[in-house]
Amino acid sequence: MGKIVKRALAVAAVAAGVSVAGPVSSASAALEFVTPVYQMTCSTGTTGSTGAYWGYATCYSPYPSKWKVRVSCSFGLNPESVFIYTDSSDGWKTLYPTSSCYWGVNSVEVVEGR
To answer: For the chain, which end, N or C, has fewer CB atoms within 10 Å of the first or last residue's CB respectively?
Structure first.
């Protein structure tokens, strides 16, 4: 998918609400985006293999921010992490839900708290 199309999708996702998601598979390139509420720079991705795929997000928070990660698994569960609070002193922070996906990951979202 072209860079312009990816950015347009990210802008549309930001306009739709406070959850920002990117399509994810074990072979996809990370999509970098800026969140609407806290202006965090984030990317999402997956790691693992059959039986234990993990969805994650890595974000940098220029301001005090409250956020978590929500993963949509193939064929079932939607594990979420707990909310964490970060700011610029934390640098880049990577967050995973506490459980994995058996068959794969459909999407990974960064959910901003208010």
So the answer is: C
